[in-house]
Design brief:
It contains 3 helices and 6 strands, in the order H-E-E-H-H-E-E-E-E. The protein has 183 residues and is α/β, with parallel strands linked by helices. The chain folds into 2 domains: 40 residues; 140 residues, Nuclear Transport Factor 2, Chain: A, CATH 3.10.450. Strands 1, 2, 3, 4, 5 and 6 form a 6-stranded mixed β-sheet that branches.
Length: 183
């Protein structure tokens, strides 16, 4: 009888310890997964005050901001790895074609570009009446490094303005045009 009590007492202590460890692991993993997307996405601040001819709904503003951040994340990854296929999720049209051509040129020359993104202040100034397009002006803060065979040959910090055209798709917004504006 004593053996049975000791067995169940030890089993209960082991079960409590195991459950405690599992709870701690789940909490740690949840914090890690919660932190990763926010840390890996560039910061995008959207200002839609005074947009015409119609206002942006709150959900649309959130979705455009998120899609634009993902587009810049993908652009940075594609430019550094010389893989145009990484542009497929958030770029379309002229933007995708132009960036894919630039990446093909990089691949031919053995050069790649590394972006360190310090954020985007985006001003929405046009949202079409049918909701089919949105025009933005992005004031981006970037560090750009040009690498030749993995070695940095040039690096600079720039404040660059982009004229952006975004259009909605079935489940997300796409960057259709991304053109630098000369100051």
């Amino acid at each position: 009888m004593k053996w049975t009590l000791d067995f169940w007492g030890n089993a209960r202590r082991h079960a409590i310890l195991t459950v405690s460890i599992l709870i701690a692991m789940v909490i740690s993993l949840a914090q890690l997964f919660h932190a990763l997307p926010a840390d890996s996405l560039p910061q995008v601040k959207l200002n839609a005050d005074g947009i015409a001819p119609r206002p942006i709904e709150e959900l649309t503003g959130h979705n455009v901001t998120r899609a634009y951040a993902y587009a810049w994340r993908d652009l940075a990854a594609a430019s550094e790895s010389n893989r145009a296929d990484l542009l497929n999720d958030y770029f379309t049209g002229f933007a995708k074609d132009n960036l894919a051509e630039r990446i093909a040129d990089q691949r031919r020359t053995g050069v790649s570009i590394r972006y360190i993104d310090h954020g985007h202040n985006v001003k929405a100034f046009f949202y079409s009446p049918d909701g089919g397009e949105m025009q933005l002006l992005d004031n981006a803060q970037l560090e750009i490094a040009i690498l030749d065979g993995g070695k940095v040959v040039h690096q600079e910090t720039v404040a660059q303005t982009y004229l952006v055209l975004m259009t909605p798709g079935a489940d997300r917004w796409y960057v259709r045009s991304l053109d630098p504006v000369n100051k």
